[in-house]
């Protein structure tokens, strides 16, 4: 969870801590001022949001003044090379017209003409005019330049300039587009100023050419001109000199090594450094807080960390001296120490700085061991909304986040520099409601007396006790009054309940613990009947008002509920959750050879062997014995399961998952009767009540402020059919669930989903196995869910249902392996086999919305279902002003979507489209065969092109109406989509309207239907991919076996370094399309093996080793490149734009590497060497039906021009340029 920034903090931006006495360095000797200029300008420039604009610090010094004056201005108007900065040290008014300050206006008038004046100029053109066209003030120019007649100040041409103007030019260059031109011009100007080496503030030996402006140093890194200035000298000057910027060592080294003198200083690595910085608080108090630089960058389980210097914080629930970070959610990245780096602290830091190795931390999508930074024994975090080194916007957020503060009196440090004005931050959110902090231990609870078996129908436990071996039966079990109930370690326990089990506030149930997993057996059977729903005394009830939460009363029938503030610990015997085959397993085979020897598997365990596409479906089997990586089955297999793909193709091998565990929760209904009630795919309104009655299973829910650690347990026959909110496993309006997890569990034969994330933030789902569960399996319910980690789960054979209408298989829907209503979550290393949709992205939004515009700022999102009212109520700890209820999901990039595998999907592999309007219906209208109507069927999938995803960067904490957006490329790494079928209407391996997705190193194999794209974001893709008109990008992608992977429809493709083999064709048309398409653009892409280095490329060589792909020999033509036999395109006016382009003759393998464009030939029956219906266009021309052009969607981000990407201007080597 990422609360909004704190409004009471103002950042002091240029505090300069005194060096320790032992480390003090004298400043470089100050040379007299050059007679030509009475000013030094030291500019530190960085690119701002608008092209050509910069933010810069302008320091001016006159002979009469000791302290430099400071002015900061951000230019947001005007083109490249026109950014304006003006000022003088002793003027009555710094700026002539504050109200009209902008990059296209620019006079500075000084009260006295004998003071330095800097006039703004257009550097590339090299004139001395102000940007408004008027000449520089004559008197001022005379005063500045008359001392040197050789400067020719009157003409002031490009070759001759006075010093002040030259330095101003370096500022302008920082915002210029053409750095080479700017640098060349600057060199010619500087040649007239040879010997001007005594500018104030430069270290000895520096020349004017080395004035430390980052952009100039990057363009003109003249290391050889300063042989006496070592890397250490430069770092020391940047760090310590009174004339320098006085940045910390890490920042100084990064500047020198990365931008300024790469040849001399590459590889400088000072490690992780903790420093101190002041912030000014309301009331005038100065707090001295800790910052850290050099952290391990990349995605952590708390968000994306940066190596830049940032304020560091602690998380109150971690506890004193815990040394283990418990928060693993959104926007609070954990500070990890780079491998081998040292940790140092400034002498002024009195806190104890150290580190320790933590395990199972999520870094860049994988759980690994890493060293976390500790301050006084507490784990350190960054706040991702802090964008400057000393920013401290996270302090006090949620009453759980606080900066590390040094106890230093005001007299110990010099007063801070003046505070720079900035726009006020948004209002602070209301405090997050939470129970008092409590110590969280992973050790088993202390021994307690035996629990007394129930004497009546309800078992009420109010004192801590241990459940011992035996069989127990009750209506319901209520654990309350802070009781801690554990199960005897080796006990065999069975429990039958007809009502449910409630773990009350501050109470706990333990079945094993992390350090000592449970070694006995536990089976709880839910035996409640739906016919008894009217008898509320039978069931569990929760009144949210009892916990100070929004008024809400819920009855939980046939359920296990961890109530508000409860703790549920379930730790079954450790087992390998799932793995893959290493060898083929044929029909009748009784032995499986696995990738690894499974841990904990034993005779009698039930496993699932996932299907491998065209060779047959998934099936279950029972383990007879295990020896190393060989598993012997009690009976032979029914289907063939592939297991011999090598290398990167190993994820195409069949998955093998564990279902059986020694801790088991199940239901007593008759599974056969339930299957008959569902009736296959023929579920209808007539069977609605029958199905609900026959499939009334138990359900497990975790409420707000509960602590949940559940691993290596089995959940079978749970969930209540066709009922919202009564799922197998369910985080329910849970709020921040940081530290809670579901790991390595087997969930199968559920009547209602596998695992549901509902109104929850920062939960972890890892390594769970979901098999034969009805409806969308891994399900984000209301679209508010953020920061959750869905990692390494296996989903097999999701089945049709109708809890919401998209659950029902058919032309408009079908169960998804992963249903995603909010992209701000992590999805990595998951495998989905046999779903209707592998992953389905569809988010809350508003009517008539288009994310690829600046329209409807702050509105393109929303919250479905119960979460909308719950989290807008301040009693939830969030409230209407909190960012979690002001999300714009359709403008939010995915946190991570990497290494996921989607196989054997019945309809689509990955889908981005088909808007729904809510997460629940009053009834199930689709069972009455109702079509989509927003008012009466809000959960029905709308037709295509009704939802569009336009990921952008923006400040989520900014007031919604003031947000600014820039298009953001989303990288989906190492995705596999294979064996997609079309069992219910038309299907696609990938269908998207929007998304700006770049598939990096993806593999697409034998999909019966290729990908197709809706049109949206044609200009934004120019920013995201560098190619306008492309709606998706593939980089180093592989397309192997089967029908054409590109099925042209509307949107365009950009393919870089792609390879293909074994295909019927590379490109074809979507049936019925008349040709209104953007086509395919290939760069450095060719048939596999036609480029000589392919065989030795580790990304490709495994394909030869597999012997499963027909790799065609190189030839002068590709006879099956395209299939344009469709009569629709050969005779339609839209078909004029059908085209395939290779910028380099298929990577230099055909036509001498020439730019080549294939278009329709007019004869679908003729193959002229490239496929039927295609011909090489002798005069290539720009062809896109939906180009980046001047219409309503001509948008490339706020303040950015689309012209470089319009009408194919960004296609390299295009003849039409």
UniProtKB/TrEMBL annotation:
<feature type="domain" description="G8">
    <location>
        <begin position="433"/>
        <end position="583"/>
    </location>
</feature>
<feature type="region of interest" description="Disordered">
    <location>
        <begin position="1"/>
        <end position="28"/>
    </location>
</feature>
<feature type="region of interest" description="Disordered">
    <location>
        <begin position="413"/>
        <end position="441"/>
    </location>
</feature>
<protein>
    <recommendedName>
        <fullName>G8 domain-containing protein</fullName>
    </recommendedName>
</protein>
<dbReference type="InterPro" id="IPR019316">
    <property type="entry name" value="G8_domain"/>
</dbReference>
<keyword id="KW-0732">Signal</keyword>
<dbReference type="InterPro" id="IPR055401">
    <property type="entry name" value="CEMIP_beta-hel_dom"/>
</dbReference>
<feature type="transmembrane region" description="Helical">
    <location>
        <begin position="36"/>
        <end position="60"/>
    </location>
</feature>
<keyword id="KW-0472">Membrane</keyword>
<feature type="compositionally biased region" description="Pro residues">
    <location>
        <begin position="413"/>
        <end position="438"/>
    </location>
</feature>
<dbReference type="Pfam" id="PF24606">
    <property type="entry name" value="CEMIP_beta-hel"/>
</dbReference>
<dbReference type="InterPro" id="IPR012334">
    <property type="entry name" value="Pectin_lyas_fold"/>
</dbReference>
<keyword id="KW-1133">Transmembrane helix</keyword>
<feature type="compositionally biased region" description="Polar residues">
    <location>
        <begin position="1"/>
        <end position="11"/>
    </location>
</feature>
<dbReference type="Pfam" id="PF10162">
    <property type="entry name" value="G8"/>
</dbReference>
<feature type="compositionally biased region" description="Pro residues">
    <location>
        <begin position="16"/>
        <end position="28"/>
    </location>
</feature>
<dbReference type="InterPro" id="IPR011050">
    <property type="entry name" value="Pectin_lyase_fold/virulence"/>
</dbReference>
<dbReference type="GO" id="GO:0005886">
    <property type="term" value="C:plasma membrane"/>
</dbReference>
<dbReference type="InterPro" id="IPR052387">
    <property type="entry name" value="Fibrocystin"/>
</dbReference>
<keyword id="KW-0812">Transmembrane</keyword>
<keyword id="KW-0325">Glycoprotein</keyword>
<keyword id="KW-1003">Cell membrane</keyword>
